[in-house]
Amino acid sequence: MTWSPTSWQEKNTAQQPTYECESDLLNAEQIVASLPPLVSSFEIESLKSQLAEASQGKRFLLQAGDCAERFLDCRPEHITGQLKVILQMSLVLVHSMDRSVIRVGRIAGQFAKPRSSDVEQSNGETLPSYRGDLVNDITFTKDARTPDPDRLVRGFERSAMTINFIRALIDGGFADLHHPEYWDLGFVEHSPKASEFQSIIESIAETVVSREHQSSDDVFDTDRVEFFTSHEGLHLHYEQAQTRKVPRREGWYDLSCHFPWIGARTTAIDGGHVEYFRGIQNPIAMKLGTHDVDVEPLLDILHPDNEAGRMTLIHRYGTKRVHDELPKLIEAVQATGKDVLFVCDPMHGNTKTTDSGIKTRDFDAIMSELDDSIAIHQSLNSTLGGVHVEVCGQNVTECTGGARGLDEEGLHDSYESLVDPRLNYEQAIELSMLIGQKLS
Ligand code: PEP
Ligand code: CO
Fold first, then answer.
1. How many whole angstroms from its chain centre is CA 104?
2. Which domains does the chain have, with CATH numbers?
3. Which of 35, 231, 271, 312 is least surrounded, with the fewest CB atoms within 10 Å of its CB?
4. Global pTM?
């Protein structure tokens, strides 16, 4: 079948909202399609070559951010908080691994969510499930839950504002590595790990100054911090609208972000998502772990030419299944002879619900899946080239554990996530220290 940005529409496509009015959807799609792109093919190709190096163990991918961005989070405090936590995590990793870190946010477009059911019931009423702010509103009323195509335009605009602000902050020296001591450490100061973190920051500042005039391929990108965007490419009308040809390059690019991924629930080989993703030139990722997936035929379709940096596999088996499942995945990929970048998402396989009905994840389970993944890759002569985590730059209380020992009672204090529980600032920095120690 010939590929086009719309060829996915001929396939069965999971996890799409049902809109009441087809022409309103088309109208919204046309507006998004007419607006300027959020990223350029140059940036996309540069990321692809960096990901190729990560698959060889020369760089490390840090992909992090909200589970679901909310429209109301498109404000400066939230964006700077997310940028800051990702930058600080990356610095901790660079410091201990002495490898460049590729920073990718789940940001500026992470607005669409897969759900296990199309509908939700409450007090005898049945309404469409919340599918992310790109689709509907979480309030449990008919009006709020009815998918609204206009949200595609509003989500795209917020993504543009978000990425614009990030670019301005970075260009303006927000992340100046000459002065990490200026970075507001906030409540990390009160963490049991504060002094360890403080000394890492001081040592980074010293290293940057002393390496200033050394080789240009230094692990510290002192001239310009690079930052890339990613989201789950779930809502295919949205992705399609920003899929373009660019001058002087072959093929089509999804210009809504640098690095879209296929979620674990939309990997059906004959489904719309695999069809859409096979045709774009971006580096792509695929999450694996919810059920048995035959990876070889998927790689045939999505990674046919074994292009360097094209394909990232994000495994998320959970700490109980990783021993059994990860070796099978690694061996199946090795049997194809193709290069992929392996990344561990230690969050999504470790979600549980407390007795009082709160969705959480435990820090130790997250760290344990990471530990095991590192060891399993090593034992099979493979490379774990990155991590994919849900984090929040604020002091939320959504995951239990960590140095401060947040317990289930404490989850009530500041739980904000609309979908999955994120590590808070302190837990995120602690996780980076532990990963850095394992991989140094
Ligand atoms: C997510 O990344 O928020 C998500 C839904 O993950 P997965 O596809 O791995 O379940
Ligand atoms: Co999530």
1. 7
2. 37-115+160-439 (3.20.20.70)
3. 35
4. 0.96
